[in-house]
Specification:
One of its GO terms (biological process) is regulation of RNA splicing. The chain contains 7 helices and 15 strands. By secondary structure, the protein is an alpha+beta fold. A hairpin with a 6-residue loop joins strand 13 and strand 14 (about 250).
Length: about 300
């Protein structure tokens, strides 16, 4: 998830969990591509900053919430722009798409193309076909059917208990937030398991560009209807919070779980692996204790020898 940023207009927000100050707001992004001319003079270059400023000027008295370069090549510069409201997207596209830019010092005209941002979000067809075609899935079993949502890039503080100094996300809060769509069978926040990184070789503590700690989570619904409702509600939406001052927004990645993460077999396997690691840890601690006792005995014997 990109860095959480301040929300200036909450008029399109819908409730997710008001008790924890969490709401959903439509993603209002657009992709802008500017075709670059072939540079004939050696040493001459096009300023990305100048192109960006020209784009800002083309939308007249409106303002982008954010505008950043997503790709830059010799042939084009691609920008990702965001505006405050869905109703503004069409007006911005009308100001930009098919228009041209003239840069100082260049005779060529730069053509601008703009379109609504294509959201990367799975469809019902995606999960239905995946589970239908998967040979190692049994759709009568929880976790082996479309019932689990995988979320990445959730800000830890937004899902922490409302206690002074609470920084870590809470499974109880996660349940409270997502049970809005249906009864929840199970949840998992891998970063809360002290053994998980050793078990998987993965680091579950991730940072956004703003330095905020994010986490990933799995939410499993008892019924298919709950899963469908949650996926439908989250499609094309960003998460905003009103907790702790100015409203902030972030865009976590949402997908359906295709790894049997919350199947009974996977849960049991993790429990056994955790148990083995706990036993190894106890053995290491016991070994350290014995070594420390042996060192202390040796030092005591050496002191006794020196004194006699």
């Amino acid at each position: 998830m990109a860095a959480a940023t301040i929300v200036h207009d909450t008029s399109e927000a819908v409730e997710l969990c008001p008790a924890y100050g969490l709401y959903l707001k439509p993603i209002t992004k657009m992709t802008i591509s500017v075709a670059l001319p072939q540079l004939k003079q050696p040493g001459k270059s096009i300023s990305n900053w100048e192109v960006m400023e020209r784009l800002k000027g083309m939308v007249h008295h409106h303002q982008f919430s954010t505008l950043r370069i997503s790709k830059s090549t010799m042939d084009f510069i691609r920008f990702e722009g965001e505006v405050e409201n869905r109703s503004m997207v069409r007006a911005f596209l009308a100001c930009l798409d098919g228009k041209t830019i003239k840069l100082s010092g260049f005779s060529d005209i730069l053509k601008v193309r703009a379109a609504e941002f294509k959201i990367d979000f799975p469809t019902r067809h995606d999960w239905d076909s995946f589970f239908r075609d998967a040979k190692d899935m049994n759709e009568t079993l929880p976790g082996e059917r479309p019932d689990t949502i995988h979320l990445e890039g959730l800000p830890c503080k937004w899902f922490a208990r409302r206690e002074a100094g609470a920084e870590k996300p809470s499974e109880d809060v996660l349940v409270r937030v997502f049970e809005r769509f249906g009864a929840i069978r199970n949840v998992d926040i891998p970063m809360l398991d002290p053994y998980r990184e050793e078990m998987t070789g993965r680091n579950f503590h991730t940072f956004s560009f703003g330095g905020h700690l994010n986490f990933e989570a799995y939410v499993q619904y008892c019924e298919y209807a709950g899963f469908i409702q949650a996926m439908s509600a989250l499609r094309g939406m960003k998460l905003i919070t009103s907790y702790g001052g100015d409203p902030m927004r972030g865009t976590p990645k949402v997908s359906f779980d295709s790894t049997k993460h919350l199947s009974d077999a996977s849960i049991k396997k993790r429990q056994l692996e955790r148990q083995k690691l706990q036993e190894l840890e106890q053995q290491r601690e016991e070994q350290k204790r014995r070594e420390k006792e042996a060192e202390e005995r040796q030092r005591a014997e050496e002191r006794w020898t020196l004194n006699h």
